Inverse folding.
């Protein structure tokens, strides 16, 4: 005989693959377009609407890694943040700006 679920026990955490989290960040940045942005909160709400706050540290970590790799940029106070430094506070995530025509990289 099985016991009924105990309402006092916390539900098991949902797990999300790293690639799913990173793909969701990129998809939201792409959907925002070249001049738009998304936020870690929006990414978390898309993945786990019931308990989105639990994903925020992980999303911020992946955003930092992706910014270091040049896949996205992190915007803080309207400026692109240095990806080599930890960024605290409210941030936005966006695609890197397109290179200007005729500009040498």
């Amino acid at each position: 005989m099985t016991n009924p679920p105990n309402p006092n026990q916390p539900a098991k955490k949902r797990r999300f693959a790293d690639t799913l989290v990173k793909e969701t960040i990129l998809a939201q940045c792409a959907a925002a377009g070249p001049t738009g942005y998304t936020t870690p909160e929006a990414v978390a709400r898309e993945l786990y609407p019931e308990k989105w706050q639990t994903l925020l540290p992980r999303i911020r970590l992946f955003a930092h890694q992706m910014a270091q790799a040049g896949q996205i940029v992190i915007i803080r106070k309207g400026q692109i943040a240095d990806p080599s430094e930890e960024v605290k506070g409210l941030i936005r995530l966006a695609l890197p700006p397109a290179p200007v025509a005729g500009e040498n990289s």
